[in-house]
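Subgroup meeting minutes
Present: P.N., E.W., G.H.
Scribe: E.W.

1. P.N. recapped why we're keeping a running log of single-chain structure predictions: easier to compare across weeks, and new members can see raw inputs and outputs side by side.
2. G.H. added today's entry (208 aa).
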Amino acid sequence: MRLTRYFTFLLASFLFAVAASFDVLSGANAQTVDSAYSSTARKDCRVIGAHSGVDDSTTRVCPGKAGLIVLASEDDLRETVSVGRNRAAAAREPAAQAWFGPFNSATTTIEWRMIAGKPFAIIQRWHIDDNSDEDGGGRPIPKAMLVVTRLPPGAVCHVAYVDVAANPDANELARKAADQIARDFNCGKDEVRVIGKSGRAIELAMRR
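Output recorded in log:
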């Protein structure tokens, strides 16, 4: 009887230890990812480096999240978006040189993916001009794509593209890519991933 009670006690202690360990591990891994938003509209940013001419070049320094700024630069009807602690830091990041070949522009709303108030990726919609598909006035019809960009610590660079027209759930795909890929992505070594179905926007963006 005493032996049975002893083994019962050992079994109960073991199960309790396993359950406690599971709870600890679950608590460590159960990180809630939130979204916050910011703007790169001219009215919300400091505009610098504007030049007069046919293809005006402008740079906007915009407030981001958690002390980061967004550097949006436009030149020759093409745009880049980078992030850093200040303008100089953002300008040195790979994202500041991530040009697309066709004329393009980014929308002014940025979604920040964050854990405990610390952002690790941004998602932004881009429009890539399609010269082979024109409207009635002869203007290229832009194709939409979501760009996922990783944030510090580490380099700032594009990590994933999602074609909006080809994927009805493009926003969710982009968030999933940000949450699962961005933090471990190695800028300069890893290739940008196409998430979901590819489409015309992806094809245009991959042209350099």
